[in-house]
Amino acid sequence: MSNPSVVEIRHEVADPTAAARALQPWLKAQASRIEAANCIPPDVKDKLVEAGLFRMTVPRRFGGLELDPAETSRAVFEVARGCGSSAWLTGLVAANVMMVGKFSDQAQDDVFTCGRPAIVPMLTGGVGHDISITPVEGGIRLSGKWRYASGIDIASWVGLLLQQMPGQDGPCPALVLVPQEEFTIDQSSWNVVGMRGTGSKNVVLEDVFVPEHRFMDWARLQTGGRHPECSNDGSIYRYPLNSAFAISVAAPTLGTAATVQETYAEIVKGRVASGTGLAQVQDRIAQIAVASGAAIIDLLCEGLVTSAAEMTRRVEAGETISLQDRALFRMRIATSVSIALAEAQKVFRSVGGSLLPVGSPLERLFRDIHAMSSHFLLQEDPIGELYGRMLLDLDLPQNARI
Fold it and tell me: What span, in angstroms and rounded, lies between the C-alpha atoms of 258 and 297?
């Protein structure tokens, strides 16, 4: 049953993109503090919640906005212009919560009516170890450790992929949901070069009971399916899963690339060449560099939104999105990020020693965009191999995630 108080809030933030844009100056002022905290601080979480950024893909029946990936991407771009770590978390949560909307209605009731914002890290990339699963009546007892739980300090739930879940015909991979009160966080586990503010720390479970209604068959999710007892039928719950996840990490990365270009323009406006004493803003080469970089990143951002929206149109029309179409979409995303990183590198080379002082906005952007673009969903070679095999009429590996 939906929470009436949440439904009332839904109408107060009808446009998360506009709300994120309004939040930008405040986020920009907090970015260094967020990084120093090694997590998203509570007051920053509260601001993101108030802006509706964690309700973008919550089902409408629970007071959410149920926005598709094209719409959520626009909001994430705006968050990234203030804080890259906040944008990374906002993008991931949008995709993760969309996946929660594919679980059983009972599991969704647990998550969306628990009295806390639906901030749900999903740990699905083979990041678990020391996992123990014991079948018991009505569910399992679960212990283990998992890495890279982005936003875990402010999370209300966590999703965990279990590769060896007992099944009738042998191990059956499943995704399970665990509430905040059942996990602990290893606060010393996140020591990284970039995206420090995401607080992607390790999470630990010790003999936790997980009821069966919070299980979701992983193979069904991979093929775009929903739980048999899921009543959500909106297009976002039929969207190709891995495409949505690729968008969720591409949007903050492209948004951060846009911030690099905007920061460079501000530097050019106030910079004086040491050798000539001339203002760089009057330099023709600098003018062209600013224009070219801004235009290229704008094309990449709009390309992501347009491609994501076209995927939504096809899903709404009842079309089946082929594996080759999904692979092409993923390849476009990875290539776009590669181009964006190359454009950012031009800026970093251009400013020279100005990049070096620790704590400057550009130094932080340098570290963040390199950390973001290294995500496995954004790397050209893995998806390029799969898409290339399709174009060459070769079989795909059994574990291919497209």
Answer: 6
| Residue 397 located in a structural domain | no
What is the pTM for the complete model shown? 0.93
The answer to whether 158 and 123 have CB atoms below 8 angstroms apart is yes
Q: Are residues 252 and 329 in the same domain?
A: yes
List, for residues 84-139, the tens digit of each pLDDT value.
Answer: 999 999 999 999 999 999 999 999 999 999 999 999 999 998 788 999 999 999 99
Distance set, CA 278 to CA 114, 153, 281, 350, 351 (Å):
60, 48, 9, 16, 16
Select from 112, 140, 170 the last residue of a domain: 112
Number of domains in the chain: 3
Q: Specify whether 145 is located in the same domain as 100.
A: no
Q: Same domain for 182 and 245? A: no
Q: Which amino acid is at 256?
A: T
Structure tokens at 46: 């509260």
CATH of the domain at 217: 2.40.110.10
Residue 157 backbone phi and psi in degrees, to 5: -145, 170
Q: Tell whether 402 is covered by a domain.
A: no
Nearest Cα neighbor of 369 from 280, 250, 284 is: 250
Can you give the three-state secondary structure of 299-342, one letter per residue?
HHHHHHHHHHHHHHHHHHCCCCCCHHHHHHHHHHHHHHHHHHHH
Strand partners, 145: 129, 204
109 DSSP assignment: H
- What pLDDT shows up at residue 270? 87
Q: Please indicate, yes or no, whether residues 169 and 132 belong to a single structural domain of this protein.
A: yes
- Tell me the CATH number at 374: 1.20.140.10
CB 241 within 8 A of CB 221: yes
Cα–Cα distance for residue pair 175/216, rounded to 1 Å = 5
What's the domain range around 28? 4-112
DSSP bridge pairs for 184: 204
Residues in the chain: 402
Contact 92, 248 (CB under 8 A): yes
Written as six digits, the tokens of 12 are: 């107060």
Question: Cβ distance 309 to 247 under 8 Å?
Answer: no
Query: Helix 323-351 and helix 284-316: axis angle, to 10°?
Result: 160
